[in-house]
Specification:
The structure holds two protein chains of two kinds. Chain A is mainly alpha-helical. Chain A has eleven helices and no strands. Helices cover 65% and strands 0% of the residues of chain A. In chain A, helix 1 (3-24) runs antiparallel to helix 2 (33-61) and helix 1 crosses helix 8 (177-184). Chain A is globular. Chain B is α/β, with parallel strands linked by helices. Chain B has two domains: 7-91, Fe-S cluster assembly (FSCA) (GMP Synthetase, Chain A, domain 3), CATH 3.30.300.130; 104-162, no CATH class. Chain B has helices at residues 13-17, 29-32, 58-72, 94-103, 111-118, and strands at 7-8, 35-41, 44-49, 76-81, 105-106, 135-139, 147-152, 158-162. In chain B, the strands form two sheets. Chain B has a four-stranded mixed β-sheet with strand order 1-2-3-4. In chain B, helix 3 (58-72) links the parallel strand 3 and strand 4 (76-81). The chains are: A mainly alpha, B alpha/beta. The interface between A and B is medium-sized, with 27 and 25 residues.
Chain lengths: 251, 166
């Protein structure tokens, strides 16, 4: 098995899986019907993309017992390689939107580059996903503008979310050994090259939204190495409950 | 329109046209453009389908429905899900667009017009109930991932708009 390719796919997929799970928590609990539907629709897009990645990872693993379901439901916390940003909780709608906004900008830039990968399966997934993620970005950046340039209350709350979640953005550009190996072979995306554009993209929207762009250079990291924040265990216990309680259940 | 990527053997067409989209029952999967290839090799029908959206829950059902439709016609069918080239709303046939409109779902506009409509810049999405373009966007996401929710300012009817995907 090609370990680097496998780890590379898992790294991409876990971001979408955990963010999808977080958004799914809002099903029936969104602040309004429209935003509830939006968050769960975005969640569905992400899960759809995750299935494609996991099916591919299962195939690359060469292990017959590995399937998209075992990858989603039967790994332990340290084996998940998502960035810390996506596991942050739905503190309020401001946090949900800002988390989405900070991830969407990266996700969009990343997929546009993944479309040029030398791996044709990843190219196909990227070409499919990029259309969906453009729409996610449109939704989240639209809401950042609306909340930021809204009432005193909405401005204050969305500013707090930006200030708080800012420290998780740098990790998006960290490269693991698998990332570097895949970049060297032309399969992976060189994320360092996207960093400048990323901060430009989000800064433009934040300024339009009359929000302050944080200057802090203190960054949190660890997720890509499987070292997660305290929230991760709760996410997994919720997400994996059925498979842990009733092993091999199907419906 | 990119129809060069579609390859359907004509004798298989009647069966495929009889399978409808589970989310939009008036629409055949052929009119939806999700069937990309159907060929019969040694008595087995091989069908390639592509999802409208990655997470579209209708894909599994569509696959099952195709298998059972061919089973009724005395044939064995095998389904393969393909992602590339990615589905676009351009693949919805003119008959499919009409079926959508008749069902109460506004058909997708051109990419430029779609953007204007979804950003609320122009009133161009036609109400499927009264035909007025005095409509406004209620929600960027609708009852399924492929749709947005609009409301007519004249007859007050809410309706789905099938988003342009290109």
């Amino acid at each position: 098995m090609n370990n680097n390719l496998y780890n590379y796919i898992i790294g991409i997929a876990d971001n979408s899986l955990i963010l999808g799970q977080r958004l799914g928590e809002l099903c029936g609990h969104g602040p309004s019907l429209e935003t509830d539907i939006a968050c769960t629709n975005i969640s569905l897009d992400l899960f759809g993309q995750v299935r494609s990645y996991f099916q591919y990872a299962a195939q690359v693993s060469g292990d017959e017992k590995t399937t998209e379901d075992t990858l989603a439901f039967l790994r332990i916390e340290r084996e998940y390689k998502n960035v810390l940003l996506v596991e942050q909780p739905n503190t309020d709608f401001g946090y949900t939107i800002v988390r989405q906004f900070l991830f969407d900008a990266y996700h969009l830039l990343f997929l546009r580059e993944l479309e040029n990968s030398k791996d044709q399966t990843l190219v196909a997934i990227a070409k499919k996903s990029v259309k969906e993620v453009s729409y996610h970005w449109r939704f989240s950046s639209d809401w950042v503008r609306r909340l930021g340039d809204g009432t005193t209350e909405s401005h204050g709350r969305v500013q707090e979310a930006v200030t708080d979640l800012w420290m998780y953005t740098d990790e998006l550009f960290h490269q693991t050994d698998a990332d570097q190996a895949m970049i060297a072979t032309g399969v992976g995306v060189n994320t360092s090259a996207l960093k400048e554009r990323y901060y430009q993209m989000i800064t433009e929207v934040l300024e339009e939204a009359t929000l302050e762009v944080p200057e802090s250079k203190y960054w949190h990291k660890g997720g890509k190495q499987g070292i997660h924040s305290e929230h991760m265990g709760y996410i997994l216990s919720d997400m994996q409950y059925m498979q842990r309680t009733y092993p091999n259940m199907e419906w | 329109m990119n129809l060069t990527t579609q390859h359907i053997e004509s004798h298989l067409l009647p069966v495929l046209e009889g399978v409808s989209d589970p989310e939009i029952p008036v629409l055949s999967i052929m009119d939806m453009g999700v069937v990309r290839e159907a060929i019969e090799i040694d008595g087995v029908v091989k069908v390639k389908i592509t999802p409208t959206y990655s997470g579209c829950p209708a894909m599994d059902v569509i696959g099952d429905d195709i298998v059972s439709a061919f089973a009724k016609a005395g044939k064995t069918a095998k389904i393969q899900l393909v992602l590339s080239p990615a589905w676009t709303t351009d693949w919805i046939t003119p008959r499919g667009r009409k079926a959508l409109e008749d069902y109460g779902i506004a058909a997708p506009l051109s990419p430029e017009a779609d953007k204007e409509a979804l950003l609320g810049n122009k009133k161009i999405v036609k109400c499927t109930n009264c035909g007025s373009t005095e409509t406004h966007l209620v929600s960027q996401f609708g009852s399924t991932a492929c749709k947005a929710l609009f409301k007519c300012d004249v007859c007050q009817e809410p309706f789905d708009y099938f988003k342009c995907l290109k």
